[in-house]
């Protein structure tokens, strides 16, 4: 993997030289799409006012999220999508944006376990209506990911220190970031029930707080599907999706169509997933006759798999629960799990940011599904979860400022409409459940505590 990345760096520099020589400096103006009929939202007339005005989402974004309309100027030595992505994977961010969390483990109704990392780690003074950012990370990451910390470090800092003063909860997928695997199932880009149950738990803890979704890559796809499925009954007040993969089948084909896409990015992601599986092999082979145990054995036997080979052998079987899983092929799973075709169903303010030179996500549906709640932005460059620019003495991400502006706007300025949320209740076994979804439920279990969110997991590539 590292040999391929070194080779890629050389190609990137050579390609950039000829591109600049032939065409001059690149255009850095972002492309922003609003619906011809933007949704109307209720906006507070003043910070402490109970009076509201109706305003179009477009006009509100243009006045409150001005950073979205600024040019992104990449660092001179990270001048294309390959280099931005490589730096996201190999860069040293250990001293950037330090975060500590308080972890709670929740057991799901099917026996699985999620790790919820709360920030600030010691939460004493926040008001009960303080906005809560609900975060879902990328492919094999966790709350320790530098792209997560870049936003939460500022969002959770006190107002008197330049932050938003918000709370945040990172939902760590089954098996990720030290979370144990306690059932024969992992996760996938399309399965939303784990997210749904975590949101039960978070909304029960903070019943008066607006919940603001924030997703990265695979986590962005999950959250996009979740808010679309929930429609007008969504417990999240808004969502921001960064580097969402959208059409999984088309973007997978894009990866496999080039040498670098197949042998660097696709195999890098496939290898990361295989390493994650190795870590939890013992937990997944309790019953050797179970279909997941059999799929795991086949997957561990793959040599340097692409992400499609991993998904075709394992994710299509173990990436979620019935009635959808198992799928016959990875392509059936990709068609089902994509998010581009459900954007039309979203009924909360939604912002998506992608980069045009993202080597992982080549297809971005910039029409927003014709949905007035949807704002789509495509920056000319930035790579996959990169967007690195020069900061004040350190490497910063361009996306941080516009995302913070979006969170502040949706957390403080917009007054969410009254929604008909289904009732939550606790059953005789202590599981928190929701009316109408009796098969789902969760409860807190032992473990967790204060954790250092500034490291990573040994043997796993960050930034994916």
TrEMBL record:
InterPro entries: AB_hydrolase_1, AB_hydrolase_4_sf, AB_hydrolase_fold
GO biological process, one term: medium-chain fatty acid biosynthetic process
Keywords, ordered alphabetically: Hydrolase, Signal
Tagged with keyword Zinc: no
Pfam family, one: Abhydrolase_1
Record-linked SUPFAM superfamilies: alpha/beta-Hydrolases
Residue ranges of the TM segments: none
Domain AB hydrolase-1 residue range list: 131-362
Taxonomic superkingdom: Eukaryota
Signal peptide from the UniProt entry: 1-24
Keyword Transmembrane annotated: no
UniProt GO molecular function: acetylesterase activity; monoacylglycerol lipase activity
Family, per entry: Belongs to the AB hydrolase superfamily. AB hydrolase 4 family.
Protein name: Alpha/beta hydrolase fold
Taxonomic path: Eukaryota, Fungi, Dikarya, Basidiomycota, Agaricomycotina
């Amino acid at each position: 993997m590292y040999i391929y990345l070194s080779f890629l760096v050389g190609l990137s520099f050579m390609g950039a030289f000829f591109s600049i020589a032939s065409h001059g400096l690149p255009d850095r103006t972002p492309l922003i799409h609003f619906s011809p009929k933007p949704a109307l939202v209720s906006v507070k007339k003043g910070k402490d006012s109970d009076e509201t005005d109706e305003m179009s989402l477009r006009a509100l974004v243009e006045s409150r999220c001005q950073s979205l309309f600024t040019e992104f100027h990449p660092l001179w030595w990270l001048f294309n999508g390959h280099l931005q992505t490589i730096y996201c994977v190999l860069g040293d961010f250990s001293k950037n944006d330090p975060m500590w969390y308080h972890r709670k483990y929740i057991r799901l109704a099917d026996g699985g376990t999620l790790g919820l990392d709360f920030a600030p780690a010691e939460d004493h003074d926040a008001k009960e209506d303080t906005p809560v950012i609900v975060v879902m990370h990328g492919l094999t990451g966790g709350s320790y990911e530098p792209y997560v910390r870049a936003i939460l470090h500022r969002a959770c800092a006190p107002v008197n220190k330049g932050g938003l003063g918000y709370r945040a909860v990172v939902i760590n997928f089954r098996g990720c970031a030290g979370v144990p695997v306690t059932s024969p199932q992992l996760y996938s880009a399309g399965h939303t029930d784990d997210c749904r149950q975590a949101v039960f738990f978070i909304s029960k803890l903070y019943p008066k707080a607006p919940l603001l979704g924030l997703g990265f890559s695979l986590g962005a796809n999950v959250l996009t599907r979740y808010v679309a499925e929930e429609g007008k009954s969504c417990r999240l007040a808004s969502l921001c999706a960064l580097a969402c993969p959208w059409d999984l089948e088309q973007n997978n084909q894009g990866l496999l169509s080039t040498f670098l896409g197949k042998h660097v990015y696709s195999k890098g992601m496939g290898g990361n997933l295989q390493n994650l599986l190795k870590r939890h092999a013992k937990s997944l082979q309790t019953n050797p006759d179970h279909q997941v145990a059999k799929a795991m054995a086949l997957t561990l036997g793959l040599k340097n798999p692409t992400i499609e080979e991993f998904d075709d052998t394992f994710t299509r079987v173990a990436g979620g629960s019935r009635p959808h899983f198992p799928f016959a092929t990875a392509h059936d799973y990709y068609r089902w799990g994509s998010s581009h075709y459900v954007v039309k169903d979203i009924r909360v303010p939604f912002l998506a940011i992608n980069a045009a030179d993202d080597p992982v996500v080549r297809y971005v549906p910039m029409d927003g599904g014709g949905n007035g709640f949807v704002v789509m932005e495509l920056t000319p460059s930035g790579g996959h979860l990169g967007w690195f620019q020069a900061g004040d003495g350190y490497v910063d991400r361009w996306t941080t400022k516009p995302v913070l502006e979006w969170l502040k706007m949706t957390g403080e300025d917009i007054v969410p409409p009254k929604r008909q949320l289904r009732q939550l209740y606790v059953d005789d076994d202590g599981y928190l459940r929701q009316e109408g979804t009796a098969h789902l439920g969760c409860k807190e279990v032992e473990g967790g505590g204060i954790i250092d969110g500034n490291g990573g997991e040994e043997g796993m590539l960050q930034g994916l």
